[in-house]
Specification:
Layout (H helix, E strand, L loop, with lengths): L1 E6 L5 H10 L4 E2 L7 E4 L3 E6 L4 H6 L5 E5 H7 L4 E5 L5 E8 L14 E5 L2 H11 L3 E5 L15 E6 L3 H5 L2 E10 L1 E5 L7 H20 L2 E9 L3 H7 L7 E4 L6 E9 L3 H10 L3 E7 L6
The structure holds adenosine monophosphate (AMP).
Adenosine monophosphate binds next to helix 3 and strand 10.
Length: about 290
Amino acid sequence: MLRIAIPNKGRLSDSALDLLSRAGLRIQSRSDRALLASLGRDFQAVFVRASDIPEFLADGAAELGITGADLVEESGQDLTELLDLGFGTCRLVVAVKEDSPAQRPSDLPAGTRVATSFPGIARRFFSDLGVEIDVASISGAVEIAPHLGVADVIVDLSSTGSTLRVNGLREVGTILSSSARLLARPDCLDEPEIRRQVDGLVLALESVLRAQEKRYLMANVPRDRLEEVKRIIPGLSGPTIVDVLDGNGWVAAHAVVDADVVYETIAELKEVGAQGILVTPIERLTP
Ligand code: AMP
């Protein structure tokens, strides 16, 4: 049984479990504080802190893991990234107090004190810039450090930027963009049986990720407007056109459409006389 390390709490935990469940891997009977649970038939979930997952993988406690790219980078572990899972998106940024004259990280003077929970990444970033910094390594609530006189600058994660603003901080640069990733310990991918199982999991997750961007649309359209319908809903390989029994000049058109433009698509179909438009989610999509 392959073990997948999954964040036991925090921002990534629910989304990771939700995605696995949509791919058909459901947690079976997990008590609240359990460290292990079976996940579908072939996998076992190991619940640990998101920040410990790179280390757990490297140490052989699990073959696969889900955690943030930022945490993998900070750990310095050599892990194989199998898939960008699309949730937990954020950026690791450099921020200064609002009244600081600095406009970009390279403006910061030598000896600047930087508070961060990413000491490794921060050191490397400023060293590459040729700016010598002094790192204050703290594990949480980094954004209050400048107000407590602990640091002049922070390196911290931001998704909307509102935490920085509320704390009177101004972003002056991005170090990296992050999101949750499916990771593997590189050596275990050499084993054919493990590789086969991992490939199956990746395929299932990819099909779910692809499907969440799409919708299945069905509409009754006048047969003599089919050329325009084809232009509006090209689908994956042209819309499927189905006869409507006693349709009298009407046919049903089915196609996979982009979720983010579905409202425009419906309006355009209405313009060519479509009726009975039905839009449904897709569970999985494999081209
Ligand atoms: P946790 O500390 O368990 O809540 O997980 C933190 C992880 O969630 C980070 O390492 C990032 O990969 C991700 N994340 C996404 N957005 C944010 C954010 N705005 N602040 C902190 N972490 C975030």
